Fold this protein.
Amino acid sequence: MKYTVKEGNYRDMGATVLGKTSVVFTFCGEKEDICYVVLVDRGTKESVKIPVPDEYCMGSLRSITVEISGPEQYLYEYEINGKSFLDPYARAIVGREIWNDGKRADCDYKVYGAIVAEVSGMNKDDYCPEIPRSKMVMYKLHVRGFSMDGGSSRRLAGTFGAVEERLDYLKDLGVTTVELMPIYEFEEMPVPKPKEMPEYLTWEKKESDLIKPEQDELPENAKINFWGYEPGNYFAVKASYAKQPQKAAQEFKHLVEAMHSRGMECVMEMYFPQTENHNLILDALRYWVRRFRVDGFHLLGGNLPMTAIMQDTLLSRTKIFYMDFDATVIDPEKKYKNLYVYKEEYQYPARKILNHINADMTEFINQQKKQGQQLGYINYISSNNGFTLADVFMYNDRHNEDNGENNADGDAWNFSNNYGVEGPTRRRYVSQIRQKQWRNAILMLFLAQGVPLVWSGDEIQNSQKGNNNAYCQDNPIGWVNWKKEKLHQKDVEFVKAVCTFRKEHTVLSQDAPFHFSDYKTLGFPDVSYHGENAWICGFDLGKMNLGMMYCGAYAKEEEDVYIAYNFYSAVSSLALPKLDKKKKWYLVIDSANDSNPVCGATLAKNQQMVALQPQSICVLVGK
């Protein structure tokens, strides 16, 4: 193995191919450290340790240029002071090509970085859709969990290709923005009980937690953390999510381009531990935007460099989703609003009022009208962390026994209600109330002002058998059961219809907060509240019904929208405001109508009052 070495350029971290025979290796290493770049021939397995001279150091960076024939035929790692390190900036990883293949039991198992020439992420026909938040509908999925249990050809199950097969389905459903749980390289770490955690799972806290420990045999049938919320290789596409693992980057890029060609966005969920280097975080986000043109990031973790991310010019048109933002850092003059608050603050008020558990109408309505001038808000009632939407109305308690933690993991308090039977039932009454509550939840979510997010499979009432923490259920519990798709076709059609209604009535999803006054003198307030009498509505603690009228003229639309919420367990009535002489009220959606909840436009028999069945929502339009 012939090579020559000279000083590198310190410009780009990781292994950067220049020309046909040069590779620049730049990594963190103090001048006092003894550093080597270790190259391994892919074919012969021959390895060589290339010393990095002390003088090739700038700050805490070491950088060398290695001249070698056919650099891409080599794998690499770093050795610092006698310890081996996997490069946290590696653009591809070799050794994890097969999902959970049991190689951890092999003492010779080794993971390396691959030397790959970076291909430009720019494609003249590929443009980011930049969908306005008023038109966004999000759908969150796990690549493997979304595609393993039916609904995809076996050859593509668990891969990016399987997700691509479903894009037309998602587009037809009304989805504009697909959020992918971690798709960067991570180890499928075993998850035995904490007290049984073997020493080989201890990660030395250095070089971004990516030191590979020596490993012994795993327990047979050990569960794994298949969600990926752990330290990862943030510059490499997960090879086991590709049909051809060696082409993982190309397959993921093809998926992103397929989304863009349909006018859909791709958002990556990325978890960073608190100790992660801030420069690496920023470099990683820029890399995925530049290389793959992803449209946004849902960031998880504490101590993230949010000010730097918010002010980064390359990321200024990339959607950033996080728990909260420092308002003093937001530029009010910025043209493109790219910041979104993403946390659980919507799901609990919604669940509480649906299931009559510490219900608070004021809290719920505040969530329905929640919007920021500079910030968008993501609303969801279910997600991967907790019950599926169907399970919210099927289980009182969590059932995480299969996780192997004595049912002590996951949230203990879910504001759920089984309506008389824990789990599936043949009791018709119970099934009907659950079905109505599921429709109510979908309606509430899509009629709120913030961006609605659907957890994968909720449109077909997918169940996890009461498991509200399926992080280690790489099996039918944690997979979407697409075999139920035909059985729940009416549910899919209902979601499509509600989504279409939202998109056709943009007054519901205005970008700016409502004023609750007729500030444009258009004849009605932009939004108004109504009780048993029009224009009069109190908010006492026991109140469980409310009418909300949206004046369509504020969105330059002809139709007004009236949403009647009745969360009482009895029939109630709400007053309808009087429209001008040319308009009348028409009923378009009634969640209590089991056979035909989407009614079309049926002229309301009573133009002064709307009668509501117990625990139901009606939507009317004035036209």
